[in-house]
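Journal club prep — side note

Before the paper discussion, L.F. wants everyone to see what a predicted structure for a comparable chain looks like in token form. Sequence:
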Amino acid sequence: MGATMEKFDRIFDLHQLFSNRRTPISMEKLCERMECSDSTARRVVRFLRDYLNAPLVYDRERNGWYYDSKQNNHYELPGLWFSSEELYALLVSHHLLSDLQPGFLSEHIAPLQTRIEKLLEQQHIQRPAIHERIRILQMAARPSDMQNFRRLAGSLLRGEQVKVLYHGRERDETTERIISPQRLVYYRSNWYLDAWCHLKKGLRTFSLDRLHPVVEMGRNRSPMRDQ
């Protein structure tokens, strides 16, 4: 695991280093940046140049390596590349999203988890036991409908008004509202929507389990949107 992981991480780090520089960097400096021996640095450079077809050029006058922008101005590593730290961070993010409300986004997040795990296998990196290391304690979570969540989130991101049916707890009555979503908030284990209510002519916070979207109404923005 260790040697393979270091190899992938060094290739990734080396690519990032060359991508962000316009001047040659010496082998001595490469060894310092990658914290490795001269022979290891040379192997990584050769692998990047010969097997991954990176536009690496050696400048004899300045005694350093660099990416030749004339050969390829937008070179990227083939395939989907992440460092081990980024893969672990993605898995933790997946775990957090999954545990916000079990099963709520599973059908959308599961393919991402499968892809991350395959990347870990390709790099021979051990899959961490995240469920044993990280716990999320929910506090009286109320179930939210996935379809309603998708429609409201879509309207929020597109800047659309939505006609909804809202059931108020205080008066135990359902009213029809036209709202302009402003922000989704996850607070104390439950989802809320901050929205401009055109009926009340003000900003209101709605619990998602009390909202039922009826129809999206287009890109009419609220008075709050441009403030």
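L.F.'s comment for the group: The chain has a mean pLDDT of 77. Keep this in mind when we get to the figures.
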